[in-house]
Structure to design on (1324 residues):
């Protein structure tokens, strides 16, 4: 515990005023932004940083720092103002002055990676609080492995009414309560205002009772009474349950005429009200200039953080676990992983097992887990369907944070956001499973994985009409296309047991890109019976079967449809047509290959694409003289074989399409 | 109130047993499906139908019937068994026997439109309960307009643990409590089992306290004590709050060896256990044969429903409002709508206002609302940004169900599912707004709009980097492509005030297809200054500006980028290059035009596509000799003008791309 107990309340009041003034001035200069939240929560934030939060601006990523998540991301000026005053080197006053301008770090919403001290990208409401669950969980899991000396920090969240109205907040609250994440403390900006007006327009939930129902420690305070806020944070830290502190605040507090109204939520105050606020706060300083006392007060917070960091470094230096700890935070050991996967692939090619790629994923996970012992995974209540649990993994529970397998419950969105939090916290390689169709349920969090470049892995099974009887609500048709449209995510749909192993090598070794695997429910033959140490899946697409003596046609397929393309090539061969088959497990990785390679794989012959999904996203794989065999509607409920026949995704159809092109 | 009070409890027990036996036998025959839920909830369902629920199988869509929603859709055999025994003409025993087989109505999950008496498609968890909120809301809104004589029914929901763990359930519960939807009654199958095992693996929320926190009436009963269930439903009906009845059940009740285990959730019981269950239930009848007493008991329920329907018809016949009531339920009056829009368009073309298309939508809504007085709309707390409220609309509140405008709160997913429920209930033309990027938050419900073919309208504004400073978390880049990938939904991105009016004519007049509008934040010039009565937007794409003397190039753009294409055509003309400009507001409607029209619009000259989004989805609009000017990464935070320049989406870039093709 490294907490400030001797408080100069005058200085703390100045710290809060400085947040208010910088926020209103920056929003005014940008003529865009949200002054209401930073002004309303300035007192709470001043207390939190001044007395509790431990961060070191000179080493922003020190592993045992407290995490601060601004879930109400529209109030971004709060964190920019604070980080400027704390002395983060990349947040000088020029940044604040150019809030929301091109080329500056002070983006409209806080963006991870754009500036130090931003722990996660927020803005889409409810993501911050749920990502924080993942951080707080990672803290406990890391602590279980390395002890209090190396891992002992808090996760603080500022959330607004919007965060708590979003559905994902239910998943967050239930998870945190169930996992008993006592070091997660949520400061709710209870200002009773949303964009449309009073919260009474749209909600009458008793949030305090709601959090209590999920096992949280709950308190309520006047958010402008700094001593009361401090006491509540102290009590929250002492309780072993996650804590909600409902901070009753006035939005835009400090602005004498506009505070308390939704008009101060997302618009500049205007020159007149800004002058009146300066008057009311007794703040004589010009815009973007701060008095020395303010920098001194915030500097003291930074100094406390620095000494905490130095004390931690001394403990780290003396720890027998320092090496293992460092390794857990480093990039995955792709050398060890690659060697293990190569040996495993050799065995697979020799034995050629026919298994569903979801089963192949389970088999590969055993290899990955051996090579990367900091692997933690889970499923949104589909463990036996996604096959995401290796034999050695123990369930992670509130009584055993040392467990490696997380039962996320029926909470796809919460799982995805929590995975982002685990990845942001560091210490683990992480993945989670559900059905591919439910990518829709967690899409906002997948998007943040991609936007932040987090190496999390989505293990999404039952990836087409091939799942059969569950019918169109469960059959992805548009999902591959919709996910391939997203920047910076690798969508990998392996065709067999070997490609699945290669997919796991890509996913588990990634550093700046999430991976989403689309895996079959149904069994698929091993097509890669000749061992190659090369990871062919990493090339995105490759020639699985060449047409001897030159191609008449090239058949290109992914996943479960590669088997169909191979059969079609056989049919064509019977009729004297020479067809090559290209397996294309990852369009994104193929697009990243050089043009010569791509041209050689795709060839100059007519092309037929085959995928049990809509054609959109296939354009780069096909050309002018091409055809596509796939879906153009939702699916149906019937056994898989009947569906493939009904929708015309068969070797015969592929062969016919090929012949019609020649 | 048309409720059964004289109960033959022996017959009711038989009714429940019959549900159990049909469910286990059908799942066994299919070798696929979920027997646990129908067997566990058989007693509750028997009581609900036998004593309370009012439906008439001879007129399944009678408007004042009670609505029954099986939110736990995997238990589909429950509703198929019941509807068979009630005598729905399309649900004979052959259907039950061929559960989950190709060509039968008994799909894996209940599908709206596949069989009578299925009020909504369920399966994706949490959708049913939230759709039911929309139904219950529509009932109250319809009642406010037509009175108790014509509209006076209940909405009953069976929900499982999965439904209540999904985030969307929070949005549902908060909305229903806030709107005080007292005629919504949720029967929670509290069996403490999920797919992975005990609910204790993943949740410790006190659901009863949670619902109470959102203003619900809450009771708990033994779900196998039929008298207790009946009393609870009576109390729920009497209370003016929405009601949760926690029904403690044993999953798979009736199966002597497997009941109570997650193994009975989603797998057949097996021949041996089926025999044991027959024994335990004293059920001597063969599979798919039922004794007369069972049909008699269920037939009595149907007869009670029929007489309720006949009594309603008598009231309807005598009602002065019968005509207006019928009109509210009929397809929208596209004649009146078309005339109003035509006159409005003439005015617009003459005045040529430069407005953002979100503003144009607000203007068009005034016209639509005049023509279709049963229009009800709303926004997920972005009313002033989406501009979704017409001047005359009053807020819908628990004290004024006669209002037309719904403050949905910060609940995009809940809004979309509730809109599905409003559309399914009937009586209203409905729409709802949020930012386009938050389509991700409600995608599972949008998918159900499309799958069910519901004519709801999504008014999604701030549709590109043109929103500016809010940055990449708020800037859609992949969303147009990801939505265009979905079957059966029209994605309309109008270019100006006239196309926006046309988009509203399409959306408000639709019957079997949802519409999603992508609207700009930024102002756009009126491009359609020459009036046409033809709805050119309904053609999907059309030549906005022809190149005199033959085209050198065709520029194709949507929405805010059509202005850029027009400027590019000017630039090209200066250099002597003849460019046509095609405005393409809706790819789906364009694909539905005949080939001659499409060929004429696209022409044979090289083509340049322009859209501030990723290229995916553009393939059908472009050809071999083409280029695309758009986005290939996430956006950034800066003023809109700076972003368009930074990402190279400018008239100059379009002109350069055109020249490089020629």
């Amino acid at each position: 515990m490294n907490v400030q107990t001797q408080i100069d309340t005058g200085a703390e009041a100045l710290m809060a005023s400085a947040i208010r003034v910088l926020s209103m001035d920056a929003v005014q200069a940008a003529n865009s932004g949200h002054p209401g939240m930073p002004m309303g929560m300035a007192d709470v934030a001043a207390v939190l940083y001044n007395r509790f939060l431990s961060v070191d601006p000179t080493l922003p990523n020190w592993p045992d720092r407290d995490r601060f998540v601004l879930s109400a991301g529209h109030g971004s000026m709060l964190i920019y103002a604070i980080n400027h005053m704390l002395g983060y080197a990349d947040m000088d006053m020029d940044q604040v002055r150019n809030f929301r301008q091109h080329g500056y770090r002070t983006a409209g919403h806080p963006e991870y990676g754009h500036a130090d001290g931003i722990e996660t990208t927020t803005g889409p409401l409810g993501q911050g609080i749920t990502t924080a669950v993942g951080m707080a969980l990672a803290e406990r899991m890391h602590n279980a492995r390395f002890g209090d000396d190396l891992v002992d920090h808090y996760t603080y969240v500022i959330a607004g009414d919007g965060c708590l109205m979003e559905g994902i907040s239910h998943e967050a609250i239930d998870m945190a309560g169930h996992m008993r994440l006592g070091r997660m403390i949520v400061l709710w900006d209870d200002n009773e205002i949303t964009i449309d007006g009073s919260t009474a327009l749209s909600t009458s939930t008793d949030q305090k009772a709601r959090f209590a129902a999920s096992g949280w420690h709950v308190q309520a305070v006047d958010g402008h009474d700094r001593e009361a806020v401090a006491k509540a944070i102290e009590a929250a830290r002492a309780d072993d349950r996650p804590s909600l502190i409902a901070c009753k605040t006035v939005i835009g507090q400090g602005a004498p005429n506009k505070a308390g109204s939704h008009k101060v939520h997302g618009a500049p105050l205007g020159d007149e009200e800004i002058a009146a606020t300066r008057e009311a706060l007794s703040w004589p300083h010009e815009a973007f200039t701060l008095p020395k006392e303010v920098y001194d007060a915030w500097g003291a917070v930074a100094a406390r953080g620095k000494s905490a960091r130095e004390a931690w470094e001394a403990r780290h230096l003396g720890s027998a676990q320092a090496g293992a700890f460092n390794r857990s935070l480093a990039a995955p050991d792709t050398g060890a992983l690659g060697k293990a996967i190569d040996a495993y692939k050799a065995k697979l090619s020799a034995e050629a097992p026919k298994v569903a790629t979801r089963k192949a994923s389970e088999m590969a996970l055993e290899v990955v887990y051996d090579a990367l012992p900091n692997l933690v995974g889970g499923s949104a209540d589909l463990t036996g369907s996604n096959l995401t649990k290796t034999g050695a993994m123990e369930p992670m529970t509130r009584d055993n944070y040392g467990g490696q397998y997380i039962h996320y419950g029926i909470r796809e969105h919460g799982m995805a956001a929590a995975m982002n939090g685990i990845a942001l916290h560091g210490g683990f390689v992480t993945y989670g499973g559900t059905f591919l169709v439910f990518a829709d349920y967690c899409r906002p969090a997948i998007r943040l994985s991609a936007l932040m470049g987090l190496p999390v892995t989505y293990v999404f099974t039952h990836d087409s009409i091939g799942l059969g009887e569950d019918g169109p609500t469960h059959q992805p048709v548009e999902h591959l296309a919709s996910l391939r449209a997203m920047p910076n995510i690798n969508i990998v749909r392996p065709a067999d047991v070997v490609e699945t192993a290669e997919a796991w090598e890509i996913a588990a070794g990634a550093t700046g890109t999430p991976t989403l695997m689309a895996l079959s429910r149904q069994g698929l033959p091993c097509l890669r019976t000749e061992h190659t140490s090369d990871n062919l899946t990493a090339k995105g697409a490759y020639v699985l079967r060449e047409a001897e003596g030159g191609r008449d046609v090239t058949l290109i397929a992914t996943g479960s449809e590669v088997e169909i393309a191979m059969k079609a090539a056989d049919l064509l061969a019977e009729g004297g047509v020479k067809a090559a088959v290209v397996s294309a497990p990852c369009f994104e990785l193929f697009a990243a290959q050089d043009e010569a390679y791509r041209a050689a794989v795709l060839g100059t012959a007519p092309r037929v694409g085959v995928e049990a999904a809509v054609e959109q996203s296939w354009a780069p794989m096909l050309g002018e003289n091409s055809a596509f065999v796939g879906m153009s509607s939702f699916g149906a409920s019937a056994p898989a074989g009947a569906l493939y026949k009904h929708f015309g995704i068969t070797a015969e159809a592929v062969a016919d399409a090929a012949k019609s092109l020649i």
